[in-house]
Amino acid sequence: MARAMFEYTKTVLKKVSFNPKLFRRELDKALERLLPYEIEELKLWLVQYVRGKPELQPYLVNL
Known about the structure:
This protein is mostly helical. It is built from three helices and no strands.
């Protein structure tokens, strides 16, 4: 079940990445719900995902 939540989180973040405020809100929710090792995995995924999206890169600082 936990893995399903991680995959769902990635899907949601991809879908809302057009709006930085919404992206931040969903990222905050994910950080509350995911397990510690999933958060680490999410950080690695986010670094790759926001590489070409400068409007989302400031949100990596808080991770």
